[in-house]
Amino acid sequence: MNREQYLEYIDHFNHKRYDAVTSYFAPDVSVEYFSTPGDSTPARTLHGRQGFIDSYKALHEYVREALELGDFMVSEDRLFAELYTEFHCFKDYPNFLGRSLKKGEVAVMTNWVLYDLEGDKMKRIRIAHFRMHDPKTARL
After folding, report:
1. Which residues contact 139 (CB under 8 A, 6 or more apart)?
2. 109 bridge partner residues
3. Which residues pair with 110 in a beta bridge?
């Protein structure tokens, strides 16, 4: 996968084309999320394409999520992406990173994502939280 192909993947994600997003995944993909300090909810892992779709459809009932690619590195079997991510809340969300996000609020963060590639598909995805940003910096 090259940068242009990854940007297509991001475009599918930003426009909630879940089937197109998961076409980049191996059938048995796993998506592992970071744990949040102070949050009693354990880190979670999604399994399979449908697990991803179900989770993001549920999240996107509360927020509009937009990704922007920063740094990008790829080798034969690994891909690293720095993702600037905005969440624009349009319906009160009771459990956003261990706290509630109220309608009208915006959360902005940078996450690092490491993908294990198998052939031309994403097999294992690990998301690490790097930094929260001032919501006033939202631009997407």
Report:
1. 86
2. 85, 132
3. 84, 131
